[in-house]
Amino acid sequence: MTSSHAERRAMQRALELAATPGVPLGPNPRVGCVLLDADGGTVAEGYHRGAGTDHAEADALAQAGPAARGTTAVVTLEPCNHTGRTGPCAQALVEAGVRRVVFAQADPNPVAAGGGETLRAAGVQVEGGLLADRARELNRVWTFAVDHGRPFVTWKFAASLDGRSAAADGTSRWVSSTAARHDTHRLRALCDTMLVGTNTVAVDDPRLTVRDADDRPLDRQPLRAVMGERQLDPGRRIFDTELTPGAETVHLRTRDPHAALAELYARDRQHVFLEGGPTLAAAFVRAGLVDEIVAYVAPVLLGAGRDAVADLGITTIADALRPTVTDVTVLDGVDGEQPNVRLTMTPCPGPRQEGH
Q: Which Pfam families does UniProt cross-reference here (predicted)?
């Protein structure tokens, strides 16, 4: 049996519900659910509001009450099959008397997967894969983290036209424009972890926070992570919790990118925003652990200074890593500043990547 027009329309609505503004981007996936009656009319809607709250199916069932019996549940993710902070949604749908379930993305999490089979075993009609690509894109970071067993890594850097992130005397404020810095904070807010190396903390003393256009910290702050074995001064601003209440900091005492990501994944972190210096960036690139590159290019020539990335071991142009550009955006200048360009790229696997 194939999905009906009403079910497709309901799935589009369920995806909208899943993307409701204000819903946390992790650690749980964003999920929406619509219950339809036999004529394709909407009985109830629901969506997941973050870890510890009702799942989308439970939310919709609660809204419907007894009217849920005999309905079709249209869900953006395969109903879960395990008991965590909440009960298994597959069993809740069975107990509510739902007749049919249509889901988009199959659950890639081995702990929660199998809901479709549980439903079928209980006599419920099940159809999977409707608008699955859109559902995966909605939760692309969560899906990646589950599939790969590590966080998704976005490497961000700002550079001059000649690839310098700082001048010869070490000064780097400001290579990028005001608009580029505001855009960086927007991207930071989409991640759950910001990662730098110990040298960046020792030399630049960053706050590593997410702030608004008026330089005020947002209520929700990603984890501030520092990677490296170097002992750090506890007076550095990254360790200051009074400056930014609610911001947490962790020191990952390793130089191995694989080990650092494993520790962050164990902390339920799924999206790392890599903002370290050229050495840390090179370590992640060489390890094949960069999944997205965001580069801000400023119309500035320095001629000398700190490179945006350190030695990658490339000695000939044939071995150059050539990321695929997925977006080019011109960020208009503010108060007379020149425009900057933001390039978003997907790295291509290359010969320099090191196994682990």
A: dCMP_cyt_deam_1, RibD_C
